[in-house]
Amino acid sequence: MKNIEKLYENGLLPIVNIDDECEALKIAEAIMDGGLGCLAIRFQNEQSFESVAKIKEKYPNLTVGIVGIFDKEQVHKAKKYNSDFIMLSSLDDNLLNSAIDEEIDVYPLCCDESDISKLKEYGLKTLIINLEGKSNKKTYIDSLRYLFSDVKFIVIDENPKDNLSFYSKCKDVLAVSGTWVVPNDYVKNKQYKEISERIDKNLLSMCDFRLAHVGINCENLEQSKKVANSFEKIFGFEQNENPGSIFNASYIEVLKMPFLGKKGHIAISTNSVDRAKAYLERKGISFNADTLNYTSEGILQTVYTKDEIGEFAVHLVRRK
């Protein structure tokens, strides 16, 4: 899997200040315990490269990058010490050419539309955009997505608040990044448990899980109509029939014949099924590959977990 795909599935990219190899491993473990599979280490000295190497040696599946290098020799060392990517603080021609020569993924900070256009001249389509100081972050991101539909963004937002759900919905936003994900105080004070809890809380905010509907398995069409009629008669939930089921409003789906789940199924809506599935897999949840369902645009729409809960099958569904 490519780095950009891994960053997209994770959705969050913490930028961490680490200057000790042993500490780097503990921070990486805390990040993984929180359900995240990537991080970027801010370059401070030669120990920064050693920290990347130590993490990659012990956790080769963890996606690890380095931030803030400023000369060609450091680009070479990033590659040598197994960094998966580098993040540049500017659109520097020398560093871009060096990264391309070293065949290491490079994501530069672009300040405006002209920077993005210049970046595309290099054949690169992944960049960093800093939203600090932007009065309407959603509108700004939407305008960039409209102007540059083939570009992917790593968003620096040190105060995302209620925007995490919005970012998660955007396929063009690979990840939300910044030092806020793993605060410096947490690192200095060795608050590993708090790091894990903070990451998990923010990942849940991005997924924004909600109950979508409950599915009831019926033996046949006649039984399904009786059940649907009862919900409409008692609660006023109007019926909407389709080939395989009858919906009462949007809350209850009455299946015309038995489907997955001994009793039926529970649908959980989320901003991005791709990201939610990847998050839950990192937490040890398995999915039924036979139930993957994509839209005509190639977006994952629904998927069932392998295990039932309370004799109900459970599936994720993308919220519109």
UniProtKB/TrEMBL annotation:
Keywords, in A-Z order: Carbohydrate metabolism, Lyase
Pathway per the UniProt entry: Carbohydrate acid metabolism
Coiled-coil residues: none
GO molecular function, one term: lyase activity
Subunit architecture: Homotrimer.
Family as reported in the entry's similarity comment: Belongs to the KHG/KDPG aldolase family.
Protein name: KDPG and KHG aldolase
